[in-house]
Amino acid sequence: MEKVKIYLKKYFVTAMGAMAQGLFATLLIGTIIKTVGQYTGLDFLVQIAGFASGATGMAIGVAIALSLKSDMLVILSASVVGAMGNAIGAVINGGLISAWAVSAKGEAQGVFYSAGPAGAFFAVIIACEVAKFVSKKTKVDILVTPVVTILVGFGACFVLCPLVSYIMYYLGVFISLATTFQPLLMGIIVAVVVGMVLTLPISSAAICAMIFSETAYAVAVANGTSEGFLLAGGAATVGCCAQMVGFAVMSFKENKYSGLVSQGIGTSMLQMGNICKNPRIWIPPTLAGAICGPLSTMIFKLKCMGVSAGMGTCGFVGPIGVISDTENGALLWVGLPLLCLVLPTVISFGFGQLLRRVGWIKENDLLLEN
Q: Which residues on neighbouring strands pair with residue 99, listed in sequence order?
């Protein structure tokens, strides 16, 4: 059982966290630069954003390989595996996989769905772990290690990416359809679940990059549920903001301005140790997300997609993503500060004070370790 915990931490905490950093340095930064370029009319920024987004798979590969403490040649070769995993997928026709593919070109029917970051994640892990058996074991390491890493990575992509594509396809379809027909309920569910994932020691950014990918959006457009897809992404953003802002405000008594900054524009994950000691401290920010999520999907129609949906107020990436994907207008500029800052502050602080009075939250329950 102990070994299982070690491997789960290694792959789904450490490696996924590294994957999120790879996404941040490419796809997410590209989104920010593109947004600035579009609003300022500076076309060269939009072009730079295209290059940044195009390097996503390679960055994921390098980041994961580094987190697994791979040797240099494995790390460099993992960039190729990451690029393959991010690009390879399947053509889905009639709800079934009709062909393995790297693009929709040449396919008469069906929709091409790439495995995206999820495919890169699994393929790179497999390639790196197998490559460890040959890395620095021969006198021709400079040839053997890259060849083994890339070929094993391709094999993993060939087997896994169509399956990953299939799963992500239906997950995206479900979220799009459910949010289209039940925006109130899904606003609550998505905001609460994604917000809690952000606070847990796993990467909400990486998960949202998989679920709210451009490929998933293309499928939603084809199915006529693109509105629901983007609204779900907006609810995810709001839920993440509620967690970060909520904990930052609630714990101001204990952590002062340093805690306000580290949690408000850093990560609410810092409170995970305190949550394990007293899970009740999680109630106010989660409740804030449950209230703000449906307000987003039903009234203000905030929209977001990709990795930005899982970032919250970290570096203000979530709000920037909402600005990028939501129609410019009064609902955006009123709803964005209201749902991402004002209401999470009021609700979390108010319920936090209530729980302090009834004794559910005690002195220093929210104190962060130095």
A: 91
- Compute φ and ψ for 267, nearest 5 degrees: -160, 140
351 closest CA partner among 289, 300, 277: 289
In this prediction, residue 351 carries a pLDDT of 96
SS3 135: coil
Query: According to the model, what pLDDT value does residue 95 have?
Result: 76
Please give the Cα distance from 151 to 216 (Å, whole number). 28
Does 69 score more than 90 pLDDT?
A: yes
Q: What is the dihedral sign for C-alpha 222, 225, 229, 231?
A: positive
Task: Give dist(CA 171, CA 9) in Å, integer.
Answer: 24
Query: What are the extents of the domains in the chain?
Result: 1-166, 182-370
The DSSP letter of residue 27 is I
Q: Is 53 helix (H, G, I), strand (E, B) or coil?
A: helix
Per-residue pLDDT tens over the stretch 353-362: 999 999 999 9
Q: Give the residue-averaged pLDDT of 227-251.
A: 96
Do residues 243 and 199 touch, judged by C-beta distance below 8 A? yes
Contact 246, 199 (CB under 8 A): no
Tell whether the model's pLDDT for residue 201 goes beyond 70. Answer: yes
Full DSSP string of 261-310: HHHHTT-GGGGHHHHHH-GGGGHHHHHHHHHHHHHIIIII-----GGGGG
* C-alpha–C-alpha distance, residues 181 and 286, integer Å: 24
